[in-house]
Amino acid sequence: MDILRILASIILPPLGVFLEVGLTKHFWINIVLTILGYIPGIVHALYIILRDQPRTV
Length: 57
Fold this sequence. Notes:
The chain has 4 helices and no strands. 77% of the residues lie in helices and 0% in strands. The chain is mainly α. The chain has helices at 2-11, 13-21, 25-36, 38-50.
């Protein structure tokens, strides 16, 4: 399932974050980062998806 989230993050970073954590602060941070620049949004989304912490929904 992480492969789908990673692909979604490359195409639309907030979608990948939403699929990982839902409507949390990380989703909104990613929206702002994506608006400010596409690359920071992708980096943040990949960080959220690939981190080792347990997932929260």
